[in-house]
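Supplementary Note 2. Why include the ligand at all?

Several targets in our set were suspected to adopt different conformations when bound, so apo predictions alone were not considered sufficient. For every target with a known small-molecule partner we therefore ran a joint prediction. The input for zinc ion is given below.
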Amino acid sequence: MIKDREKWLEHASQKIKVPQELIAKAFKDEIDGTPAMDAPLEIPDIMDITYKYSYGGISRFFRELRDNRRLYGSKCTHCGKVWLPPRINCNECYAPTEWVELGETAEVVTYTVVYYGTSTFYDRVPYVCAFVKVEGADTLIMQNIFLKDIKMAKVGMKVKIQFKEQRNGDMGDFWYVPADGVYDNV
Amino acid sequence: MDKVAIVGFGTTPFRARWIEKTYYELAYDAAKLALEDAGIDRKEVGGVVYGIYNELFERQFMPDVYIHNYIGMGLKPSVRVATGGATGGAAVFVGWTWIASGLYDIVMVLGVEKATDNYNYAVGHSTPETLKAILFSGDMTFENPSGLTAAASYALPLIAHIDRYGSPTEKQMAMVAVKNHKNAMNNPNAQSPKLLSVDDVLGSKMITYPFKFYDNCLYSEGASAVVLASERVARSLSDNPAWITGVGLSLDKAFAGERDDITVFTSSLHAGRDAYRMASIKSPARELDFAELHDAFTGAEILSYEAFDLCGPGQGGRLIEDGVVEMTGALPVNPSGGLIGCGHAVGATGVMQTGEAALQVQGRAGKRQVKNARTGLVQSIGGPATAWTAALIVQRIEKTGAGTKKRIASGRRRKGP
Ligand SMILES: [Zn+2]
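The joint prediction is reproduced in token form.
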């Protein structure tokens, strides 16, 4: 039994960045009850780490997205393969690549609809994750497709890129919508 | 190369939560059971290979360090394998090499996983936080931001496959769910033994299209261990050891969008071919007596039939419809219940399935025994869109001549070449 309930909740809340009432709910038995001395004891805990992460050689890809609303791939200087996600070298030729701008349209090669998401995406369901073949790229990229009706998703559907108004320099800066323009304005 | 046998197997039950045990306490239980089954003392073990997937599940990086001492293996060689869902099978693969190389006579492979100490306070449940811990395994720059889940990662190749072949149908997938939940009723260590109908599965809640609730395996906690031994030690410990006669391991391109054919489990195809070749298996559909496949999702089991040449491309759905893979069929798949029936205690899963295959070929599988099981296939899949596969062939080999009477079991490193 926890001795000073209020102080314990305050400490736990600060430690794991969760409101006190939710912690109180999860630890009701330990707070209010009298579990046996040998009963399993649970504690609130968190593992987190902050970053100032460098994109290294592919930094330009995210700068073009964020600052210029442009999607770039990278073309092998030896075999000509256009990579998306981009990379600064080709793993088939071991040769460097160069930046090439890609088209606005793409085709859905495969997709799925997520109805049960992770903690981060729990409130966003249902949403579509798809592999799309972007005009000008030789590989597929994973991206979200926004649809008015989730059941519209299908293999082979033509989509076009849409950029987010507030862009942050990550993959969340863009997504795809049906090329015929029927979509929710997100 | 030395021949490698499985001479001991021990597992804890797989459960939604082992609140009363930590990961190292679970590991201890599995190690103790496996040593007892092998009939050896911990001091006789030459080294330990650990299979542990996710640091965030365990709330501990390098968890193998803390297990090794806890189970009394201090100063013995040890290495940890972490290959996503394929961790257990890949750990057995590495343990196999330690013996086949002639370096050690006895190696323990120990897989363990927690998962549901993760907890989402807003939802009041573990699952969303467990899924979040897994999502750090997706490429953090290009795939994590899309909200991909493990189920979605399997659904993407599957939808492309369905688009091409019109199969597997949702009904065929439901039949796999019915089979594996039912098989688990014969396994006392299984988490989800259940008698379901196809309609129960089809009517269950949509999780990730096309997977409904019962198409998914559940996250589990548990530990499993096998004791591997060289031929000379194995013959001295057992009249009837299970032999690992073929192994294969393959890691496909990380971004599934770079692969040549997204509808194929290509790493399974490659690992399977290597394992078949080593075990001299030419016609797997005819020569295999059973398989323990990585049915994290029903559709994955069906696509695995195809990747392992049990049928042609696009024909996987027929194997379940024709009853071939049922317990009563010609090639029972997942007599243990698989991941859908037993649960998926990630690092432990492939070790458990290897141990189950050993029980089958030794005729020790109890109510889930496949009649005359002589040769079995074990598959472990992991990573983004089935990137990794470990494949093993487990066989009974009829004894030729009398084995040595003298018991040999020493943990010492063998003489170098
Ligand atoms: Zn190239």
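Chain B has one domain: 4-119+217-395. The pocket of zinc ion is lined by residues A 76, 78-79, 81, 90, 92-93, 95 (CB under 6 Å). Comparable summaries for the other entries are listed in the accompanying table.
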